[in-house]
Amino acid sequence: METNKEYVFETKDWIKLDGVNDFWKEFPVKSDKPEEQKEEISYYVEAYTGDMDEAGTEANVYIQLYGDKGDSGPRRLLQSKSNDNKFEKGKCDEFEIKAVDLGNLRKIKVGHDGDEPGSGWFLQKVQVRTSENENKIFVFVCNK
């Protein structure tokens, strides 16, 4: 059994919260052994807000992706790539999350931090695809 194993994590990146970038940053282990090497990929998350009255939210929304190789941890959906004002009635907002390859996605956890008036949210569905296989789409229906 090897007891003095050294792991290297390259951290050549800023960790910041500036309203655009996520405040999470994963640093995959760097290794000469392919079975230990994990590469970071992009997850493209599309959140569809329902089309009924008061379906949108002003709350901070979080998502956690779960796959057969692990989970992403909770991530705040900060900057929509498709809309200036995110989570509005009848709109789809797209976000990019960078994480190590989680394998086939099995479930997601979605929530928000709001308990003020206007923070309720009707989430129709979430679709996720990856930079590794953009033709494969994982669909999670919520309708709540």
TrEMBL record:
It comes from the Eukaryota. Residues 41-144 form the PLAT domain. InterPro entries: Inner_ear_hair_cell_LOXHD (IPR052970), PLAT/LH2_dom (IPR001024), PLAT/LH2_dom_sf (IPR036392). PANTHER family: OXYGEN-REGULATED PROTEIN 1, PROTEIN CBG12474. This is PLAT domain-containing protein. It comes from Tegillarca granosa. The lineage of its organism: Eukaryota, Metazoa, Spiralia, Lophotrochozoa, Mollusca.
